[in-house]
Amino acid sequence: xxxxxxxxxxxxxxxxxxxxxxxxxxxxxxxxxxxxxxxxxxxxxxxxxxxxxxxxxxxxxxxxxxxxxxxxxxxxxxxxxxxxxxxxxxxxxxxxxxxxxxxxxxxxxxxxxxxxxxxxxxxxxxxxxxxxxxxxxxxxxxxxxxxxxxxxxxxxxxxxxxxxxxxxxxxxxxxxxxxxxxxxxxxxxxxxxxxxxxxxxxxxxxxxxxxxxxxxxxxxxxxxxxxxxxxxxxxxxxxxxxxxxxxxxxxxxxxxxxxxxxxxxxxxxxxxxxxxxxxxxxxxxxxxxxxxxxxxxxxxxxxxxxxxxxxxxxxx
Length: 316
Known about the structure:
Blueprint: H1 19-32, H2 38-57, H3 68-80, H4 85-104, H5 131-147, H6 150-165, H7 169-173, E1 180-181, E2 186-190, E3 196-200, H8 203-216, H9 240-254, H10 262-274, H11 279-286, H12 291-312
Antiparallel strand pairs: 1-2, 2-3
Helix pairs in contact: 1-2, 2-4, 3-4, 5-6, 5-9, 6-8, 6-10, 10-11, 10-12, 11-12
């Protein structure tokens, strides 16, 4: 009796497929295996769709048809049409991640992006509010909430928590009521890569939360509310775009610099360091994977110190 033959495994269903199927599978990989945020997955999908269109126009209809020269031509074309260096850097990062994955899964025989280099990006220090400007913003929001309705309470608790915790806007709108612990004044957050962290907040933010839970949130509750802490006008979880709009509006009303709401995160980190917090603690609060990311706030503090010295010291 002859020995049974080992079956020959063929390619995976989409190994030889075109770009669309490969990009869809890669986005699923980002979501299910790497825990990427929806924003990151969407950005990579858009970047890779642009690469697929460029490749198709140059005769490459599938990932395995792409070489290093085509990738370099793609980036050069983007640069020639006026795209910023930050955009080029992100798109080259998307290409490297994608082709590393297609190679590891057998969709491409070798990685054409392994030697693809990103353009150097100018490193600008993040803009932050001064302590006085941050206080003006949150106190103005609190004054409006004292005389306003539930929406004003929502605006107030938003800026208080963003400044007190350094959360990203997307992280804040994802918080559920049960994630808050008012007795210890902490909030449990699911950050990038679905990594959980616990962040403290102070008494003013706790007061805003209590007012929101008692007099603001109940006015918006509906069947669609679930456990969401912040609710929109129709009762569902508040959209982060609406939260950003609220911060811009409050900054304009309060007369403070109209920075992006993410600047409150930068502001919280800078004020923590200026107040004496160590770098590791700030890293934990912000949920940075690398300490190097947190270290840029030490440069912000140094720049602010130099500016203050130059203005105040007669022999500066």
